[in-house]
Amino acid sequence: xxxxxxxxxxxxxxxxxxxxxxxxxxxxxxxxxxxxxxxxxxxxxxxxxxxxxxxxxxxxxxxxxxxxxxxxxxxxxxxxxxxxxxxxxxxxxxxxxxxxxxxxxxxxxxxxxxxxxxxxxxxxxxxxxxxxxxxxxxxxxxxxxxxxxxxxxxxxxxxxxxxxxxxxxxxxxxxxxxxxxxxxxxxxxxxxxxxxxxxxxxxxxxxxxxxxxxxxxxxxxxxxxxxxxxxxxxxxxxxxxxxxxxxxxxxxxxxxxxxxxxxxxxxxxxxxxxxxxxxxxxxxxxxxxxxxxxxxxxxxxxxxxxxxxxxxxxxxxxxxxxxxxxxxxxxxxxxxxxxxxxxxxxxxxxxxxxxxxxxxxxxxxxxxxxxxxxxxxxxxxxxxxxxxxxxxxxxxxxxxxxxxxxxxxxxxxxxxxxxxxxxxxxxxxxxxxxxxxxxxxxxxxxxxxxxxxxxxxxxxxxxxxxxxxxxxxxxxxxxxxxxxxxxxxxxxxxxxxxxxxxxxxxxx
Length: 508
Prior knowledge:
It is a single chain. This protein is mainly alpha-helical. The chain has 20 helices and nine strands. Strand 6 and strand 7 form a beta hairpin. The protein starts with a strand and ends in a 7-residue tail after the last helix.
């Protein structure tokens, strides 16, 4: 049974994020968070009582920040804000992405700098725990005044509007409230703005992207080591002295992994036994995979900080009595990180496809053409390389950085935006492609090792054995997409890394 996890706005980790979002661990607010939220709410009420002009509390929003709103209109102002901003388009985000948004918004508000009543956050958490997920269109965020549009769609059902996923079906929010026998939330001053002014869509998608990327980075080393054996490669290029004198951490880690995976292998060769040096796609795996590891860890740092960030505007500081208006909602740190991770992951696919080509091409491999004994009558795995090449080329277009774009909005008040939501969304398209490019290499490496005449390494033997538990050797032509999708699942759900990890230690 999943243990209850307390949110306090300070200690959410990527691991805890995964437990809640992917594995449905239940959530509650800590006592400390509730007290902090009460203090900031008291400050909001005090500012209203003093007739102070404070952005988002006693004024309109965006370009309308100079329009003063009467206290008796505060509730209507908040409702109007949510309804008017819920104008997203496109396919709905996945339930996991929406769960991440709900969790992250609750955690940000739990910090106690937003002036939101605890019962509002408790309602958001309750829906998260019940598995009631708002229908949130994927498109419409500029990633600068926060993810305004998607977050508005996330909050709309709590107010009795919009739609909710209930057991896989779209239901009107008002029907969900009737089923519960309760009335929807009514927002007080500042609460609508606090609920939608933040980076939670892009952070959720980027955090989910990191969890996926981790499995791909580990798989790239494992599958790459199998290819080294299939091509009778030269692991002398992974010598520790070579990598230590450069000092790049990811490179050193990758070389360590490759040596561990190839431990006890008799299938690999020494320099000048067959050839003096391998091609770059084999020889330079530590340098290429390692750079992607370093990028991953940079992005992990950005996301880990953002998981516990206060990102709305204005922020309230009860200890000093200050309400500070600024731009913590701006998604630039995440936009750059998402673009960086996308490029880093695409490079894993680039080099993987080159290794696949070397296996299926008899002029480069020394193996039967396209890894079949009856080439001509059978095409073998010829077209799997085509698929990998297609996906790699598609990634090149997707990798154009979204973060280099900006477009003004809100009558030029918001004149620089991050496009972080776009960067995070297309990251997942790239990860889908990378998964299948690595799956193609995994399938081809397994087939190439059918022709091996010597003992495999400890780690590569475990990877080969797992593959053969799910995909038989290719004896005659069959539908290749089934092999690709099966291998992709072994990679993405972590079974490949887990199985190999029982035999040798693989580092990230």
